[in-house]
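Researcher: Following up on the earlier apo prediction. This time include the ligand. It's magnesium ion, with the SMILES given after the sequence.
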Amino acid sequence: MPQIWPIGGGKGGTGKSFVTGSLGILLAREGYRTLLVDLDLGAANLHTMIGAPSGEKSLSDFINKRVKSLNETIVDTPTPNLSLISGAMNNLDIANLAHEQKMKIMRDIAKLPYDYILLDLGAGTSFNTIDFFLISNTGIFVTMPEPTATENIYRLIRSVYFRKIRQVLNVHHFRSLAKEAEERNSKATVTNPDLLLHIISELDPEKGEMLEETLSAMEFSLLMNQHRKQDNSNIGEFICRIIENHLSLKMHFLGNVAFDDHVHHAICEKRPFLDLSPHCKTALDLKSCFKKMLSLNDISGTPSVTLA
Ligand SMILES: Nc1ncnc2c1ncn2[C@@H]1O[C@H](COP(=O)(O)OP(=O)(O)O)[C@@H](O)[C@H]1O
Ligand SMILES: [Mg+2]
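Model: Understood. Below is the ligand-bound prediction.
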């Protein structure tokens, strides 16, 4: 079964695709059979980051039933061991995905014969993005040291967390428990996850235990991209601790990745940055984040039970 790393971030332009492509190349160089899937709803451009041609085959072919299996949409890239499923060529194809279609894509992704599958997710907190995030118990959030980006990342992680709670307690059950919780304590705010968990455990110990188990299996990571010299180096770690405190969710800080104009240059050349500038600080930062992610991965990267 592949290890799946969904990679997302609340805001466009933080570097999700750049990080996805770079981590994919590092995995492939280690000899892992690696697949990248471009699931960005509005801006599928992962192929450019890894120097792969566009347009040959894409997720659109599968969504529109031009091919029978997801396998048929996979293309090779110039990096050995690295394959790609290009993003939907028509935004409407994926933006209008029916729930069943989305579940089928997720189930089929989890069955593909790779060691690692990385999902490049779109910005924002749409259900499509969040559900793809929940395909795995792990995931990487990419942000950058600007207030707009860090605020969005908190909102996204919170949405992912509550969506998971709703998946475990079916919607009706969740609503009635939430209502009961509010009635029990007029001051209770059920948007506080700790309190919610506590109240649910009191009302329905079995569900409470199940929920606690599911939530404690989730481990997310944060990567601070486009870090400039003048930026505080500790913001990423600080955000992780805030999230851990507010959501009781394990958050690992992978590290800072330096801003470097060579990234822009590599994208313009349509060549992988790690091939063009392998020794600069940004490349070393990426490798350090990669090693940390790999060391965490053994415990948390398998597809989550919700797909069973
Ligand atoms: N570490 C970095 N240093 C310099 N520029 C970067 C870095 N990471 C990303 N960028 C720039 O940000 C732009 C957006 O990156 P991209 O990966 O497409 O973001 P996203 O997928 O989150 O929308 C890139 O075109 C690139 O110019
Ligand atoms: Mg992108």
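Model: The chain has one domain: 3-146+218-307.
Researcher: Noted. I'll compare it with the apo version next.
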